[in-house]
Every structure is written in C-alpha cells, then in structure tokens.
Design brief:
- There is one protein chain.
- Helix 5 packs antiparallel against helix 6.
- The mean pLDDT is about 80.
- It is elongated and about 75 Å long.
- About 50% of the residues lie in helices and about 20% in strands.
- Strands 6, 7, 8, 9 and 10 form a 5-stranded antiparallel beta sheet that branches. Strands 1-3-2 form a 3-stranded antiparallel beta sheet.
- It is α+β, with helices and mostly antiparallel strands.
C-alpha cells in the first residue's frame, strides 16, 4: 500500500492542532519544509525547524499557532493526490471560498501561494489549501461588537450613567469608575488593533461573506505585534467583564443595596 507523504504530513498537523498540541513532528522532506515555510510566512504556524528522531533520521518539527484558543490552521486539505493530479493555469487558479482561503501550488519556480502565482502568472499543480473560516467569523463578530459598542457610547452620552447608591463606600465608587473606563479603553484598543491588523496583512479578512478588509500591505512583523496587543486587549476585556459580573452578584446578593436592579431599571427607561 502506497501512502502520500504530503497527505500524511497534513493529517499529522491537522490532528495535532485539533488536540491542542504545541508541536507536530513528521519525517522530513524538502517539499514538506517548503510547505511549512509558506504556512509560517502566512501566519498559520509559529515556526518550523529541522530535528532528528531516535534513529538519526531527519524530522520536520512544526510549532503550531493558536489565536484566541483556536487553531490558526482551519480546514487544511490535500487537493492534488498521486491518483488524481489537479493542475491549473494562472488565470484559472481557484479562489478558495471566494478568496477567504489560501491555495499552495507547485510551479516552475517552486512552491507558491495562489496570490503570488497569479501575480507572476504561473500555473501549476494545486497541492493543498486551507480555509480561513475562523478568521472570517472572527472579523464579522468584531464588526458586530464595534457597532454595539458605538451604540452603547451614544446611549451613555445621551442618558449619562446611573447614579451609584449614597451608601456605597468611596473606594467602591472609585473602583467602579476605573472598571468602566478600563472596559471602554480596552474595547476601543481591541477595535483599533483589529482594524490595524487587517491593514498589515494581504490575507483575506472578510466580513459578512463579501467585504474584504485586508490590504496589499504585507508585514508579518507589524501584523504579529498588533495581534499581540489585540490578544492582550481581549484578555483584559474578558477579565473586566468577569470582575463586573462578580461585583453585580456582590451588590445583589450580599450588600443587597439594589444597585443591579436600579441599573436595569435605568437602562430600561433609557431604552
């Protein structure tokens, strides 16, 4: 029985990603190393390096990447197979999910991603593609959060903030203000870093299935830096929301000062 080394490599990477592992090890080959290089350039994996197994055979060690706890590689598939070779001219190279994914081809100039092959007018054998579904969903949710946040700011500007109970200690009032301003700050930072990350990558970042937010600028260093700030802001927002929920539980069930009820009535009247 003959196995396809590339299919085996992709299966190993795919299974390791689903299992949440940090690394994936497979037998080394020049083609696998080139595929890993492109995946690293595109931000799908953290790193790829050469290793050695217990028998002294060369191995390819792929360090996997996760964004918000989800694998960056999503829907990695082998296209051309030993029993079914698929070729495409430069003008006919398919746009995976209408441009939401990446296709890697073997061309006369070696392995290329679909964008480079189209730009340089090279056709070739379609080796694999990866669908960017998680990135698309993430961008769409980000836009919806932005719209809701703007709506919240408008309501705050029109109606102001609900008054805190006079019985509440000053330190709690101060903490509440810091928490709210901190939440506004990090949500704003989250929105702007999300938009900025789209500017520094040429990968398709599409919202609502049609509007592509990415640009022709492709700077992985800037992209990774901004993504780091974006992820930190995400964690900060989650933490502050968690603290806000704990504070609401405290005021409702322990302090019993009806702060939570008053806030709900305030926003009901404002609505």
């Amino acid at each position: 029985m003959h196995t396809d080394p590339i299919s085996d490599f992709l299966t190993r990477v795919r299974n390791a990603s689903k299992a949440g592992k940090d690394q994936c090890v497979s037998p080394h080959s020049k083609m696998k190393a080139e595929i890993a290089r492109i995946l690293k350039e595109e931000g799908f994996i953290q790193d790829a390096s050469e290793g050695e197994d217990a028998n002294g055979h060369r191995t390819l060690v792929v360090t996997l990447k996760y964004v918000d706890g989800e694998p960056s590689l999503n829907g990695l598939e082998r296209v051309s197979r030993p029993g079914l070779r698929l070729y495409s001219k430069s003008l006919d190279i398919p746009r995976v999910l209408n441009g939401l994914g990446i296709c890697i081809l073997t061309t006369p100039k070696g392995l290329m991603k679909d964008r480079d092959a189209r730009r340089q007018k090279f056709g070739g054998e379609m080796e694999l593609w990866d669908r960017l579904e998680s990135r698309v969903d993430h961008a769409t949710v980000g836009i919806l959060v932005t719209i809701l946040f703007i709506f919240r700011i408008i309501l705050r500007y029109i109606y102001g903030a609900p008054a805190l109970p006079n019985s509440m200690p000053n330190w709690q009032k101060f903490s509440a203000k810091i928490g709210h301003y901190g939440l506004y700050f990090f949500i704003t930072l989250l929105i702007f870093t999300g938009i900025a990350s789209a500017y520094f990558t040429s990968d398709p970042i599409v919202i609502f299935g049609s509007l592509n937010l990415s640009s022709e600028t492709d700077s992985q260093e800037a992209f990774q830096l901004i993504r780091g700030v974006h992820e930190f802001s995400t964690n900060a927002v989650i933490f502050l929301i968690f603290v806000h929920i704990l504070a609401s539980i405290y005021h409702h069930f322990i302090a019993k000062d009806k702060t939570t009820v008053k806030m709900l009535k305030f926003w009901k009247q404002a609505g």
